[in-house]
Amino acid sequence: MMRPFLELIDFEEAKKIIMEKTEPMEKREKIDILSAIGRVISEDVISDINIPGFARAAVDGYAVIAEDTYGANQREPRELKVIGKIFAGDTSKIRINRGECIQIATGGAIPDGADAVVMVEHTSLDDDTVRIMKPVYPGENVSSEDEDIAKGGVVLREGDVLNPAKIGVLAALGINSIDVYALPKVAVIPTGDELVPIGGKLEYGKIYDINSYTLASLLQGSADVHINEIIEDSEDKIKECIKSLKDMDYIIFSGGSSVGERDILIDIIEEEGEVFFHGIALKPGKPTIFGKIRNTLIFGMPGYPTSCLTNAYTLLLPSVKKKARMPYIEKKKEVILAEKIVSTIGRHQIYTVEVEDGKAYPVFKESGAITSMSEASGYIEIPANVEYLPAGSKILVKYF
Amino acid sequence: MMRPFLELIDFEEAKKIIMEKTEPMEKREKIDILSAIGRVISEDVISDINIPGFARAAVDGYAVIAEDTYGANQREPRELKVIGKIFAGDTSKIRINRGECIQIATGGAIPDGADAVVMVEHTSLDDDTVRIMKPVYPGENVSSEDEDIAKGGVVLREGDVLNPAKIGVLAALGINSIDVYALPKVAVIPTGDELVPIGGKLEYGKIYDINSYTLASLLQGSADVHINEIIEDSEDKIKECIKSLKDMDYIIFSGGSSVGERDILIDIIEEEGEVFFHGIALKPGKPTIFGKIRNTLIFGMPGYPTSCLTNAYTLLLPSVKKKARMPYIEKKKEVILAEKIVSTIGRHQIYTVEVEDGKAYPVFKESGAITSMSEASGYIEIPANVEYLPAGSKILVKYF
Predict the structure, then answer these.
(1) Could you tell me if B164 lies within 8 Å of chain A, comparing CB atoms?
(2) Considering its fold, how many domains does chain A have in total?
(3) How many other C-beta atoms lie within 10 A of the C-beta of residue B48?
(4) What global pTM score does this model have?
């Protein structure tokens, strides 16, 4: 007995329910900063050092005691004894006394005793004696030891997504491992008696498991994906499988196209948890199930590869991104529709398209067709209340 | 003796030279499709199977011999004996003879002997006898075995970038490893006596190695990055290092800020290869060296973290993407400049900015400042001939 779709829910309503039921990760983990790109910081990063950590020369010149320069001018320069040189990176701790100075390069650490730097342009050197032509005040041309970042200051914030610049900031603080939110754990369960694992023999009437690969590649970077072995469309097998995966944040069933599977899955979710909806006014992608068992969100995805993939982009990925606390940034661009599309009133429609020379050509044939994917650059969405898109319309393509 | 920048070259000219000297990878490798996202296919993928591989029912109904249905109508139905059922995925090879038919679900394999499917709507079933109310022609409601993809056909092309849809296509063909262009091999060499590796003790006047981490994170996914240990600013050490890395596609020197390092590197490249330019009319990022030794492109990057990072985005990454045969897609958005910026005529200027509520605030302090990076969402570029950007200007922010 096949359960009819008594109440197809609107696509926008389905999205809203999915997002409402998605709670951001609380679990954290510590990872190496070199593997942290794209990850989300789980607590404020506070600097426990001053940066640069030492007072530096802001110009090339001579580190001096400011008082020694007072009154200096072109006609009456002050003469100081040069007792050494400091380059950026030098660690020698020379000390200067009254009447002495040290030649210093921009970025060089200000020596003990000195409190200002005279620009080289305002000096003239003669052996180990330098003539200062212009006075400096204490602190002039000196960057303070905490000029850039002060010890105890918040440098990055909880929720920040790590990019190369922020990873550089961590390196600058000497931090090589960082607390981030853990990635959601997602199990992908290919179901359906017609499925054969890649590498297996393709007997008459069978097809390869495709959805596990599209889903796993799509979720890469946003989730920790486990691909299960193919399981039978039977209540026992599906129950057992769900039980064995109870630490998962998501279980995604995909691949079955037999009529019975949908019903089995709905029954199991209803028995052990809650079904939020089954059946969306969406084409393709109607037979989509969404529910929850304990803390695990359950998606029953349509078996056809294109439906499964576009559903994953429009419904699953936004949820996984929210759970991972990552922004969901679609790669989208407005282009011109090359051929008219007639859509179905009352159903949100998704069309795969190929973009060439700024024009979008529909390539959607049927949900089961691989060429609906292989030739597609991405997809467009046609809302339920739009019946017809004439050639030449401006449409928003979302790229795969 | 510090070599002066006799001829600063234009930023656009520098970019052009870099791109001209960058030759796309020829080296290939075979990788698992689950690790192939973002990678570039190195030869056309030809299907060696038909998809679906068997003729399928396009509707729910009865697989029949079309001739048995000729002349059928409501008042004079043709009666056929139902000898079995076929669901999607069934592999039983039943054969039908004249006067027989098989109940079949959409997607089910057409049994031997049958050549058409009668829609269930045009039938009525009574025990094991079905009444056909409407004739079908041979091939009606049947999808051919190569309807989607024909054996021998080109399914994906050399140069295609693998995304989830294309990985799904490979899975559909039963291909679990794929020939792709190898990633460029990039060695990042932190140089400079003031650098300390993360985890090391930060002595007076020293700073942590930052650029290795920003460069490695930025190139992740586009290159195979090797971070070298920190080496001294000496001719011998740099020569030895270059010699030990001769199978690299790129060697990136970064981190030194001493005046001598630039000259040492220029001398070595001139001795063993060619210097294409040193010194760009760019702020920050002026002291940039670009050359080639044998087949290795050499970049000498400015040591300051922000200069090194923005240089990497504007000059290095486009080159690495070209070498990897990947598109370089900048994440950019037009926003409103919140505060005026005064720029330097004659130098292409890069400013880090923070974007908040659609407005960009300059956060660039100095190239050495970590906060020029930590507070930045991305950067804007101000061409050499623009002196002043008033508050309220529309500017293009390129996001980190």
Answers:
(1) yes
(2) 4
(3) 11
(4) 0.90
